[in-house]
Design goal:
The structure holds 2 protein chains of 2 kinds.
Chain A lengths: L3 E4 L2 E4 L5 E7 L6 E7 L5 E8 L5 E2 L8 E7 L2 E6 L8 E7 L11 E2 L3 E5 L1
Parallel strand pairs in A: 2-11
Antiparallel strand pairs in A: 1-3, 3-8, 4-5, 4-9, 5-6, 7-8, 9-10, 9-11
Chain B lengths: L4 E3 L2 E5 L4 E6 L7 E6 L6 E6 L5 E4 L2 E5 L5 E6 L8 E7 L7 E2 L3 E6 L1
Parallel strand pairs in B: 2-11
Antiparallel strand pairs in B: 1-3, 3-8, 4-5, 4-9, 6-7, 7-8, 9-10, 9-11
The chains are: A mainly beta, B mainly beta.
C-alpha cells in the first residue's frame, strides 16, 4: 500500500516554456503532499507543502510565482515550473504520507521527474 | 527548522568491509528516519527510531539512536555492491513535513 505515482519521469523543454509535473497518491487520500528538488549528488531540498483545497506553503527562498503548486483533489498535486530556464533543470520529487498509517511508516515518494531545460 | 548534519558526505569502500555513517543535530529529535535512494528513484524508508538508545537491525544494517536523541548512526556489516546508494537521515517534524540531512553517498566496489 501507500503508492505515489509521478509523471512524467523525464521531460525536456525549451527555455521560456512551462512544464507541469503530476503527483498522484494511488491507494490513499493525501491532504498534504510535498515537493522536493534535488541537484546532482546532493540531498533533497523541500520546496513546498501542497495542501488540498488551499494555498501551498513554500519554504524560504522558493519563488511562488516560478513554481506553481495546485492540489485540487485528495489524490493529485501538480507542480508547474513557469517560464523555465536552464538553471531550473533538476530532479523534482514528490511525496505524501498516508494519514491512515503511523508516522513511523514514513513518507512515500514518487520516482521523480528529471527536468532538462534547453 | 532543525539542521541535520551527515558525515561523511562521500564514502567509497571495498566489498566485504564494514562502515558507519552518522547523522547529528544540535536539537533533540522526536524521532528520526533513515532512507536510501538509488539513482533516478525516490527515497525508500529503511527505519524509524523513536526512543533514546534504541537499536534496530535490518539484515546487515544496524541503526542506533543516541541516548539524548540528538544523533543517530547507521552501521553496515560486510558491505555489498547492492548497498550502493545515497543514505539520508530525516526528521519527520511531528508529521508536518520531512526534512533531510545532506546525505552520505556510499559506493561499494566489487
Amino acid at each position: 500500500g501507500a503508492v505515489v505515482s509521478q509523471h512524467p519521469s523525464r521531460v525536456i523543454c525549451k527555455s521560456g516554456t512551462s512544464v507541469k509535473i503530476e503527483c498522484r497518491s494511488l491507494d490513499f487520500q493525501a491532504t498534504t503532499m510535498f515537493w522536493y528538488r534535488q541537484f546532482p549528488k546532493k540531498s533533497l531540498m523541500l520546496m513546498a507543502t501542497s495542501n488540498e483545497g488551499s494555498k501551498a506553503t513554500y519554504e524560504q527562498g522558493v519563488e511562488k510565482d516560478k513554481f506553481l503548486i495546485n492540489h485540487a483533489s485528495l489524490t493529485l498535486s501538480t507542480l508547474t515550473v513557469t517560464s523555465a530556464h536552464p538553471e531550473d533543470s533538476s530532479f523534482y520529487i514528490c511525496s505524501a504520507r498516508d494519514p491512515g498509517r503511523r508516522t513511523g511508516k514514513g513518507y512515500t515518494f514518487g520516482s521523480g521527474t528529471r527536468l532538462t531545460v534547453v | 527548522t532543525q539542521l541535520l548534519e551527515q558525515s561523511p558526505q562521500f564514502l567509497s569502500i571495498q566489498e566485504g568491509e564494514n562502515l558507519t555513517v552518522y547523522c547529528n543535530s544540535s536539537s533533540v529529535f522526536s524521532s528520526l528516519q533513515w532512507y536510501r535512494q538509488e539513482p533516478g528513484e525516490g527515497p525508500v524508508l529503511l527505519v524509524t527510531v523513536v526512543t533514546g538508545g534504541e537499536v534496530k537491525k535490518l539484515k546487515r544494517l544496524t541503526f542506533q539512536f543516541g541516548d539524548a536523541r540528538k544523533d543517530s548512526s547507521l552501521h553496515i556489516t560486510a558491505a555489498q555492491p547492492g548497498d550502493t546508494g545515497l543514505y539520508l537521515c530525516a526528521d519527520p517534524q511531528g508529521a508536518q513535513k520531512l526534512v533531510f540531512g545532506q546525505g552520505t553517498r556510499l559506493t561499494i566496489n566489487p
